[in-house]
Structure formats: C-alpha cells, structure tokens
Design goal:
alpha+beta; 5 strands; 29% strand; 120 residues; 32% helix
Length: 120
C-alpha cells in the first residue's frame, strides 16, 4: 500500500467534510478527532493490503471500504470511541459487528479484507 497517497486521500476527505452540512443535507462535520483516529487506523493496516476507499457518513464518521463486487466487500466506520463498526459480505456470507481498535488493527477485519481482495 502506498500509505503516503492514502494519507493524502484521507486528509483531502477531512478538508472537504469538516464543516456542518458538507453534503448539502445537514450532515455532521468530520472532526479533527475523527480524522486523527482514522489516521491511526490507516497507519495500523498491514502493508500487503491495498489502500481503502474513504468516505464520510452523515454522522461525521470516516468510513473505510474495500470492494471487489457486490458479493465481496468490507466496510467500517471509525467512531470517536475507536470502535470500528463493520459489515462484510463475502459470497453468500455476511459478517457485521463492532471491533475495538487499540493500537493494532483487529485480526478479524484483516482476515475479512484479505478474503475480499483475494483473486479466485
């Protein structure tokens, strides 16, 4: 993963979404605290993973996504509590829940992302 490019994308997203109503539909702003936690999550990702797609949700959280097709994706939002609320779809199976982020990226999410990006 080119972490320098990924950090730039994350920073650009923060700059675009750090004011109230950034989407024109009354979305909450992405705060510096959200950005800093997301940056720590990004820096903890294993270097063998491709960079995620970043987006902001209307609640002001930053989301990370890996998408191969509608049957192979992982997405999670970074909460201020450092919880990662995730959803994964791999084939006909679905996983969802809350993974706690301390200093290391949660192994379950690492495994799910690796399954999504693995070419059959």
């Amino acid at each position: 993963m080119d972490k320098v490019a990924a950090i730039k994308e994350l920073t650009d997203l923060f700059k675009e979404c750090n004011t109230l109503n950034w989407d024109g539909y009354n979305a909450n702003s992405v705060t510096a605290e959200h950005y800093n936690i997301a940056l720590k999550v990004l820096e903890s990702l294993h270097p063998n993973l491709p960079p995620p797609f970043f987006c902001a949700d209307p609640y002001g959280c930053i989301c990370f996504e890996w998408y191969r097709d509608k049957k192979n994706l992982v997405t999670f939002s970074v909460e201020l509590s450092s919880s990662l609320i995730y959803l994964a779809v791999i084939g006909d199976k679905t996983w969802s829940g809350i993974a706690e982020f301390g200093t290391e990226f949660p192994p379950l999410l690492q495994d799910l992302i690796e399954k999504v990006i693995k070419e059959d």
